[in-house]
């Protein structure tokens, strides 16, 4: 692996950039591994990287049924923030936010993390009260989040309409300045490259079709479309397909999978300086460095694995965008696509051990797990290396649905996040 | 010259309401979760595991899924459906109370 630096860029440029080596080998499965990760999204690749880097467990395979980063990691609108209501959530998401900070340097790969600020619009009295409650709760947890008047919001994001005549007038906003975006693909590629350099095998086009368990119930390995691969330690990080895979080990999970859509406009010059979310009218938007407006829509109402959503969902979102940003009414949309998100009853993830020995899980991130990518990878690696959860992910156990100790961000945010 | 039907018709589900006996666009319907989950008569007699299963565990299959829909902007009634979650194709819809297909 050639380190990226100004010097190496210059040297390769002299050769017309023809001599770059491949960034990671396309590995074939070995008979056995010390740990297997199912799913080469950002979370799974991150877990493999941290297993190798922090815990010296390098005989690791990441098994992916398609291509790496082709799941929700490559399909999301890349909003990063940590201003969640509950203590457990603030700790979890802020852990990830802190890791985003040094990630490009650590991986020697530009993840394009941009702290442009995430602004959430308040449109009614309930929003105002709820956001202020979030701001106070966040402050107690050392998480930045501040209240803006409608005028201040407009100053921060000039395309915003704060007309009092609007159907959903802007009464103010909550702003997390450390929030922002990152380039989705480079997160997966950066982790893949760094993990492979430490000896991790990334095996693509290989679907896990079964989980083999021994007489004592513990895992022995995975059945795949490329044969059996043995390991006593398996971490499942398969987003929308998590419950399907857990059922292979005989476990029923509190998950439902829904299509979630996003779309981008034609590229235009820089016009939109931050990320704006409006939960009430259901629209999320930022502008990519390529110039496209990146817009997040809602989930379909029904369970599905089809990876495409209905058009009326997108229309609903665009109607909201035109309302809040009249300046964009004549923009053309270029592409729409969908991903499958795994949603838990309390809208918080499940990250920890399972009742099956040697089987670990990281799932239930639903509509909002991109922001958690480095944190989830780090905590899954910790949990697999030590066979016990880190204090940050300990509350995110499966047992909470039995004990009732939910982390109810669903009630707190009442929307996709 | 006949006009083409508008695009959106192709881009959303057509659902057959067994009461109205008509296939109508998805926006007339509200999805109401997995079907055939029986509300326990006396929750206080249940263990925490059973209560958890009733409240939170769903089959979430990739494939045949039994689900409830309500024709909310039509006759207003609940009915059941079997749909393939990988293709979104409906296999059957049937009236509430009829046996599982
Ligand atoms: C349209 C959209 C917008 C979103 N916007 C945001 C946002 O703005 N901010 C945010 O924080 N989050 C957002 N999310 C959510 C976020 O994308 C996910 O929570 C996160 O990317 C999950 O990462 P992951 O690595 O766990 O999953 P993925 O990247 O989906 O990786 C899971 C991998 O598992 C593989 N897999 C599945 N089954 C098998 C099998 N049997 N064998 C082998 N491999 C298998 C899949 O192919 C996939 O590559 C959005 C999601 C979508 C769909
Ligand atoms: Zn009807």
Please supply descriptive tags for the structure shown above.
heterodimer; A: 417 residues; alpha/beta; 8-stranded mixed β-sheet; 6-stranded mixed β-sheet; 11 helices; 19 strands; 30% helix; B: 101 residues; mainly beta; Folate-binding fold; 4-stranded antiparallel β-sheet; two-stranded antiparallel ribbon; 1 helix; 9% helix; binds flavin-adenine dinucleotide; binds zinc ion
Describe the structure.
The complex is a heterodimer of chains A (417) and B (101). With 417 residues, chain A is α/β, with parallel strands linked by helices. Chain A contains eleven helices and 19 strands. In chain A, the strands form four sheets. In chain A, strands 5-6-4-14-15-16-13-17 form an eight-stranded mixed β-sheet. In chain A, strands 8-2-1-12-19-18 form a six-stranded mixed β-sheet, with helices on both faces. In chain A, strands 9-10-11 form a three-stranded antiparallel β-sheet, with no helix packed on it. Chain B is mainly beta and 101 residues long. Chain B has a domain at 29-95: Folate-binding superfamily (Folate-binding fold). Chain B has one helix and six strands, in the order E-E-E-H-E-E-E. Chain B has one helix at residues 48-56; strands spanning 14-17, 22-25, 30-34, 64-70, 78-84, 90-95. Chain B has a four-stranded antiparallel β-sheet, with no helix packed on it. Chain B has a two-stranded antiparallel sheet with strand order 1-2. The longest helix of chain B has 9 residues, at 48-56. Chain B is globular, with a radius of gyration of 17 Å. The interface between A and B is medium-sized, with 23 and 29 residues. The complex binds flavin-adenine dinucleotide (FAD) and zinc ion.
Helix content of chain B: under 10%
The count of DSSP E runs of length 2 or more, i.e. the number of strands of chain B, is: 6
Shape estimate of chain B: globular
Percent of residues in helices of chain A: 25-40%
Strand content range of chain B:
25-35%
Beta-strand content bin of chain A: 15-25%
Give the oligomeric state of the chains in this entry, treating copies of one chain as homo and distinct chains as hetero.
Answer: heterodimer
CATH class of the domain at 29-95 in chain B: Alpha Beta
Structural Rg of chain B:
17 Å
Biggest sheet, spatial arrangement of strands of chain B: 3-4-5-6
- Runs of chain B with pLDDT <50, length 5+? 6-10
